[in-house]
## 1
Amino acid sequence: MQNILLFSILGLASGAIIATIAIGVVLSWRGSGTINIAAGAVVMVAGYIFWCLRTGYFAPALMMVPAVLLTLVLMALLAVVVEVVAVKPLRTASPLARLVASIGVLLLFQAAVQLVFGTAPVDSPAVLSAEVVEVVGVTVPIAHFILAGVVVVLALALSMLYRFTRFGLATRAASENERSAILAGLSPDSLSLANSVIAYVVAGLVGVLAASVVGVSASTLPLLIVPALAAALLANFTSFGIACAAGLAIGIGESLLFYASTQSWFPTQDGFALPGMQQVAEFFLIVIALWWRGSSLPQRGETAGRSLPPVPRQERLVRRAAPVVLACAVALVVLPSDFRQAVTTGLVATVLCLSFVVIMGYVGQLSVVQLALAGLGAFTVSRLGTEFGIGFPLGPIIAIALATVLGVAIGAAALRVRGITLVVVTLAAAIAIEQFVFANARWGGGQTGAPVESPTLFGVNLGADASFPGLNGTLPSPLFGLLALVGTVVLYAFVANLRRGDLGRRMLAVRSNERAAAAVGVNVRAVKIVAFGIASALAGTAGVMYAYNYSTVSAGSYGIAIALTLVASVYVLGVTLVQGAVLAGFGAIGAVVPLILQKWVLPQDQISIWVQLIIGVGLLVQLKLFPDGLLVGMELKKERRAEHKAQSEPSVVSPRVEEGVPA
Amino acid sequence: MTQALELRGLSAGYHGSTVVRDLDLRVGRGEVVTLLGPNGAGKTTTLCAISGVIKTHGGSVTLGGEDISSVSPTRRARRGIAHVPEDRGLFFGLTVAEHLKLGRRGEHLDAELAYKYFPALAAITNRRAGVMSGGEQQMLALGRALARQPGLLLLDELSLGLAPVIVERLLPVIRQFADETGCGVLLVEQHVQLALGIADRAYLMGHGEGSTSYDASELLNDTRLIEASYLGGDDLDLESLATDHNQKIYERETQ
Amino acid sequence: MIQPVLDARGISVHYGGVTALDEVDIAVGPGQVVGLIGPNGAGKTTFIDALTGFVRHEGTVRLDGVDLKRKRPHARVQAGLGRTWQAVDLFDDLSVAENIAVAAHRPTLVSTLRELLGATLPQSAAVASSLEALDIAHLAEARPRELAEGQRKLVGIARSLAAAPKVLCLDEPAAGLDTDESAVLGQQLRRLADDGQSMLLIDHDISFVFGTCDHVVVLEFGKVIAAGLPGDVKNDPRVIAAYLGTAAASISGERS
Ligand SMILES: Nc1ncnc2c1ncn2[C@@H]1O[C@H](COP(=O)(O)OP(=O)(O)OP(=O)(O)O)[C@@H](O)[C@H]1O
Ligand SMILES: Nc1ncnc2c1ncn2[C@@H]1O[C@H](COP(=O)(O)OP(=O)(O)OP(=O)(O)O)[C@@H](O)[C@H]1O
Ligand SMILES: [Mg+2]
Ligand SMILES: [Mg+2]
């Protein structure tokens, strides 16, 4: 009993941080109608700024009070900078664009901090009292209570601010409908800025306290966004009180679960507690909360804003794709081995990105679970081969089927959230899979990686180690690359074709407006589930191809940070177009573009951090130029030009001219 | 009399394609002016260009004697333009009462006025706009516009979705509001007879072309003009009719 | 008495404490156009929402004798209840023709599978014919965003018509159309009705309603206050007081 109390109180500190991040998410939802994935990173930045000021990293160390104040001022300045760079240019773009921008900010903050301060966590000198108190027989630091208390007070203050002031009302109005707000004489720009500043200062305050209570770490703190998003979702992204309570509860729950895992009754494996139970529990909690809350069709008056970039028509694909296919085929034979490998990886990543085109581009559901599903497929192939002797082609078929079934199950569980809020559920699912399956030494590769047997058909080795080397006589064999090329082309054509057909039309109808779609007889649930099925099957296929390409599977390649990066890059390149998937695929980690950067452009040490920095900056620049994504933006320009030409000639959209109207 | 609004050579449209060309129009203080024209003539586009939510391609917009062509839409709204757009411009998440409180700093909305003109709203002050019926939303949009006590009222599709009794009560209210507060009203309305019933003057828009001003009561009696404009007859026709019309007025006045 | 196509009985809808509909009975016969009018907020749209399953309701909805009670919205539509929306909701990413094609095609498991395997399904003739019926064939390739409000309305009607509904519920189809255009729309709808299309029609353009409908039902505060032939309803003092006002006198072209 005492232990339970002790662990609850210990969980209070991390709960307070989760609660703060959740509050940050609610703030940005209220302020600009989007989900701020960087909310955790903002707390981290504040922690580091304070640490620098206090320990005299750059300049002479400051006393506590000036250091706190200066930190808050710097956070406010940072808010202004981020607003100008990443928010303001996207105010009229879709909320998805702003969400992607926040991923960019996250990558940028994390990479910058890691480049400057390294990856080890830092501890600030104490701000709060270092005393301990005794509660019912257990001794705990008083700072934990103060930290939690501060967060609760902040939540209360914010909810008063937004409920009772003119500013709160104006913010709600402006974030819901920008045009109407302008007509009402409000200035959405300044409101958004004010909200950003509030969010950053609040995060800054807690970051300062957290830095001294639990320490700050550039690698873990930003990822606390995941439980925080769960808390924000429970709060419907609007209630500060619920977000705060849920955040604290999650922190305490995690701590208690950790305590439970030391108990004899806890499920174990090979003498250790089963990993990932906490993440699985969180996922199910979210799903249960959704059933009790949402509805399967939006209700009357639920604003369905434009949440996605437009879908240009896709024409003359064969003519456009043919040269690329040819170039790939040649490259797969003639290039040196690391580039051959990178081209194959690019093809595989293209298949994975196609899954985003289907689920995000066509159906408008922001799902990030696909990379985890790909990992699941890859591990399944590895395990089936090594443990059960099931090889090609049965192994991959089972693996893809498994990924599809799991993906459909997750999709079905998430039917009550839609659009960008789906990111919360799918993130939780991805983490659950990562921790429960990949990190499990027996099912996944643990930290070492799992071997994969090469595929053989009728005794012929089709894998990367086939006896058919490249032009320079080295492995990997072009044979596998060429097979991957054929597979990719088929799937590319499949996804492009989907858009033009009956099913694609229904997907776009669901994406535009679920109520209106249901009213013309579209089974919205079925369409979403089919789409989840297709996306998951594509992801599973990509996973199997990854496994064969590298002949080994390691959990590190399927983490959520990579998943978020991938989603963001597909978006900025054009998520509603199949070509966007190709570009994103070849820019993915391990593919051609990063290889070039790695070989010739970037410094050799800390390469992955540099790549992350570049991607972060790239995302923001790209969004500023083409808020709907590079290829989509260019395609639209072309369409408009054609339209314009058509208008100078007799127009298609000629206004109605009626004959014989009765007077 | 000073003008509440004056447009000179206004052109506006959407990314490149010009929908409204070279429009001259003015609305005096306390005057009710209606803008008539067939489906797709560019009436909505004109109102949007005046309130600034779409960019103009050329020409000038003058509000109360001041050129506001380069003023941002937010500032225009603060200078007293109240625009009730076609989609009503409400916030689905806000209640009726909140709509009637919402304004920029220091602005006071006269909620009582809105409730006086639309008693139905008083019964549902705590209902969110999103779940209200179409007509209730329209009442809220109009009520809110009046409560802002504007200097220029732009009404797109005034009677849209309103029950006949409500329209019947509303029209004199608009007239009275204009007379009493000196607010200029520019009104777009599909039901021509209704609009002409309360308007002082009317402008006829053909497809994209500028238009001529007419006396509302004249138009009520002379349906030929409206027909010509609505049937999309070529401009020549419209112009010759217009000369014809002016000729008649001239003759009557000189008699 | 002929068996009605649509028979809704005892329909009640509550939103929290608000009773939006209270035991409303409405039947629509084959080829009949039934008008539903009433003051703002009377519950007309809610009635269509209830019929098509978008709000939870009490009472029974029968279409050609089949009880729709347990069906979800899309299944009710597939069973033959078409509807349009008061604020038009076109699919912005699809052209007008594609918008209509979504409604015209009824996918089956087999057709979906065939499509996934790369087969191209034939275009339905319903797309062209419903565009034709409303005289908007020239808009087929336009994008919804580019259309003026009145045109969007017509596309919305064409879209629900393309699903070949047994009963078509139209929520203020003439709002946003001018007097002449609504007259034309009235004629088009009348032509469809004469060809056997049953309709439930909501509108505030009373000449349009009275000129198009065979039977008119008046709602106030969620209750039926009058029902009957247009001529009778028009002169009902309660209807005049609650809804029509002095406009009653000027209704022209009414059907008897
Ligand atoms: N966002 C847009 N993009 C491109 N074209 C547009 C857009 N909005 C309107 N148009 C075109 O501009 C023309 C004028 O439209 P507008 O909405 O101003 O007409 P209107 O006179 O208000 O018609 P209605 O009576 O139907 O409301 C129409 O032909 C329409 O196709
Ligand atoms: N979710 C809801 N919660 C509370 N009240 C609601 C809700 N949905 C609708 N209402 C109310 O129910 C009443 C009926 O609305 P409905 O839309 O059916 O009216 P209507 O007859 O179609 O009116 P109109 O002619 O103005 O379109 C309205 O007063 C509306 O405000
Ligand atoms: Mg208009
Ligand atoms: Mg209605």
## 2
Amino acid sequence: MAELKTDDYKYGFSYPERSVFKTRKGLDEEIIRQISAHKDEPEWMLEFRLKSLEAFRRQSVPEWGVDLSGINFEDIYYYIKPTEDQTRSWEDVPDDIKETFDRIGIPEAERKFLAGVGAQYDSEVVYHNLKDHLEEQGVIFCDPETAVREHGDIVREHFGTVIPYGDNKFASLNSAVWSGGSFVYVPKGVHVDIPLQAYFRINSKNFGQFERTLIIAEEGSFVHYIEGCTAPTFSTDSLHSAVVEIIAKKDARVRYSTIQNWSDNVYNLVTKRAHAYEGATVEWVDGNLGSKKTMKYPSVFLLGERAHGEILSIAFAGKGQEQDTGGKIIHAADNTSSVITSKSISKDGGSSAYRGLIKTKPGVQNVRSAVVCDALILDEKSHSHTYPYMEISTDDASIEHEARVSRISESQLFYLMSRGLSEEEASMMIVNGFIDPLVKQLPMEYAVELNRLIELEMEGSVG
Amino acid sequence: MNTLEIRNLKAEIEDKAILKGINLTLRSGEVHALMGPNGSGKSTLANVLMGHPEYRVTGGEVFLNGENLLEMDIPERAVAGLFLAFQYPVEIPGVTVGKFLKRSLEALRPDEKLNLTSYIKELREGMEFLEMDQNFINRNLNEGFSGGEKKRMEILQMLMMKPLFSIMDETDSGLDMDALKIVSKGINALRGDSFGGLIITHYQRILDYVKPDHVHIMYDGEIVTSGGMDLIEDLESKGYDWVNETAREAVHG
Ligand SMILES: Nc1ncnc2c1ncn2[C@@H]1O[C@H](COP(=O)(O)OP(=O)(O)O)[C@@H](O)[C@H]1O
Ligand SMILES: [Mg+2]
């Protein structure tokens, strides 16, 4: 049968590099000190960065998962500051940056369905806004630099506690050179009724983006945070290595959604982890459509009784792409429950893997977990793998695991085509049907966006 | 009047010749029955007419109202008015009946804007007529359907799509008496001046409800004999081998 057309990447444009300050290529103590000085940081943060650099140097690049030998850490700019100041007014954002975000659709989205927006361009957040009524209730939504300056005590108490600086090589790298990201604080009992969104854009070549996000949800609060990311298509590779820490206190609920649509020259190596205390719920919704190689396994540590963790992962691996994704749940308390649902699609030689871990603390009681992973392979050249790990050290656990790999069959295509659909449309319908159970669980606007992106990947039409 | 003309059609699969020169002309207003033992090539004929890529046409021609059918791709054949009710309808997870049928009707009539209200009304009426539960609209196409439900779904699609010619491949197999009557009612509803049908079957049963105008017997990739309802009676009492032999004797004498 005929091949599906490959995609055109809608966000592959770039503007001339702009910077008011930029470190030289490569990574050493001097560069770390420069970054820290530029941010006018307290001593404790500089120390945190320096010990992280040591930890980064001590560790080697992981040898499991995807092949990362193509990354040359010396050939990367670790910090590019695009503007002097951050603004709360869209009007004050410089024209080229404003146009970039206009083309991606950020201001429109803010008007339509967001409670607050942050926009990061290379290393710094250039725009930040939060609806007044949330600010009045004590919600904090800002970049972490501002948080370090203005809410130093809360930040210092939590920063690096969920993902320690030495956790893994890329978390250490982020801890050493982090710049930008989000800080979210939701006070006790406050429900942020519509989502907050941060948008991450790489504009410069040979650049590494290392944003850092910390979300603290106090007792009984709720917040939904959305992250989006794109980059220009350059012939050389870029590196994106974020760290996201979530702390959901008693009975709080945090939902973190990502639709990652990096261009296909980006290494996307992200560490995301949440601590869920008594009665708390943390949900990761993780859509990986873009990038060259992604390694990302959002995790939830269920630390208090009745805590619940949920991971929905959707991956689309097209030509030249490797999506190594999944999730981890650690049941460290009684009566905790978790669900992992993973759907991956591989096409045009792309490769996707589900890698997951369910672990219990010895002797915990009444633990329930269900893992379902489905893979759809669209052609003979493409691949899918499943690596489910279980470390269950209690007798009182109910753990279900289901994995299915399917291919679009010729008979499905024939059937739909005999009803008048073109081959492309028939494939699209099968793919949409495949991800439908997951998409149904997304908020409306988000489901629409995801469907649109997957359609772009499938059809290659430029929107 | 519409015609579907099959002339000396030959086809193979995996280098094995299956169809060895089929001649058959369907006209609107007619229903033909095609019978024959397992493996004689009936489904192959149906699939080749619809354009299944696994089969290779090695000779002959097919014209739908004078247009060369074999040069069209699969959806073009559907748009031209050909329908195949599958012997084994496939499951399409995550795609609801309602959504699928809507897209299909839009694809079949690209020049018309589908009116959503009348579409839903027609769909509901069709389901009622075929005694299907209305909640099938929101079920995934053929997923978890029983054998009988799948066959009814094929007939429902046929009623909605209103093809010029429909090939029904063993639509009666595996149906109980009630379901057989319902499916037959569906086929009869479409019968008329602008519809032609080819019913592929092993059994006389369905032909008691949908009386064919012509009956053809297929044996080893060829139509060995054609006639009316009386042929079916011979077949029931004496079997395919007898029919085949007498037919060959008549030809080779
Ligand atoms: N996909 C296939 N691969 C190989 N042989 C096939 C395939 N489909 C059908 N055949 C062969 O073609 C012949 C005719 O099959 P078919 O058309 O299904 O017969 P019928 O529908 O009359 O029972 C049989 O010998 C069958 O084994
Ligand atoms: Mg058959």
